[in-house]
Write a structure and sequence with these properties.
The chain is mainly α. The chain is 70% helix and 0% strand. Helix 2 (24-33) crosses helix 5 and helix 4 packs antiparallel against helix 5 (76-91).
Length: 249
């Protein structure tokens, strides 16, 4: 009789706790705390094996509590947005497949952790993991995996942003250099006539050249050979020696 009473009281307590969760007062802060959560099953309070019908029913059940048209709380629109985005994730076939792969990997990780821990507990004579502990560990492992994926995604986006920033900076630098070169060449060409005119004026003015020590170049003096020097046959190229021909037979 005592056991039956205890089981009845536990069931009543469980129902009371469950009903307490499904109120606007509890759901609005819960959903707002999960605005960065990427696990839609956690947001919708669903098991990982939930069917399409389960997903639809649970969404309706929660949306009634936080829909802006039914809830006067000023935070209701933000909370409803979080709920709605999670529902869209699970009603999109392609996105749902992605979530299912994440959950499958998370479950495999959790199962491996539980097996290792159960072996350790068995050796130490401690009780093995209960069904509730397994469920909690699996859910936590899946959530950790979602967080890990999100971190990798943000790191990749950060690296891509930095790469794009460097490439844009390089493009700007190349354009600036090209523009500077073009302006320099343009300015040089525009002042060409002035430079030529100045040079002609300077070249034709002896007094200006004399001021900086420039005079007319000295005339080249042709070298005169002394009378005693042997004569050179000018008809033959210089450096050609034909003495070897005298020895021919």
């Amino acid at each position: 009789m005592a056991d039956e009473l205890s089981a009845f009281l536990n069931e009543i307590s469980s129902i009371a706790q469950r009903d307490a969760v499904y109120t606007a007062e509890s759901q609005i802060p819960r959903l707002l705390d999960l605005k960065d959560m990427k696990n839609p099953y956690e947001i919708l309070i669903l098991s990982f094996d939930a069917t399409a019908d389960d997903i639809k029913k649970q969404y309706r059940k929660l949306s009634i509590l936080v829909h802006p048209d039914k809830c006067r709380d000023e935070r209701a629109p933000d909370a409803f947005h979080v709920l709605e985005q999670a529902y869209k994730e699970l009603t999109n076939p392609e996105k749902k497949q992605i979530h299912e792969r994440v959950i499958r990997e998370g479950r495999e990780r959790a199962d491996n952790d539980i097996k290792r821990e159960n072996k350790k507990r068995a050796k130490e004579g401690q009780p093995l993991y209960s069904s509730r502990e397994k469920e909690e560990l699996t859910r936590q492992t899946v959530n950790d995996l979602y967080a890990e994926i999100e971190t990798r995604k943000k790191n990749t986006e950060k690296r891509e942003a930095e790469k794009t920033k460097r490439e844009r900076a390089q493009e700007v630098s190349v354009k600036v250099q090209a523009r500077a070169k073009h302006e320099h060449e343009k300015a040089w060409e525009e002042t060409r006539d002035n430079r030529m005119s100045s040079w002609r004026s300077f070249a034709n003015n002896p007094s200006k050249r004399a001021k900086i020590g420039i005079t007319k170049p000295a005339k080249l003096k042709v070298e005169e050979r002394p009378a005693s020097a042997p004569k050179v046959e000018t008809t033959k190229p210089m450096g050609v020696n034909e003495e070897y021909k005298k020895n021919w037979r």
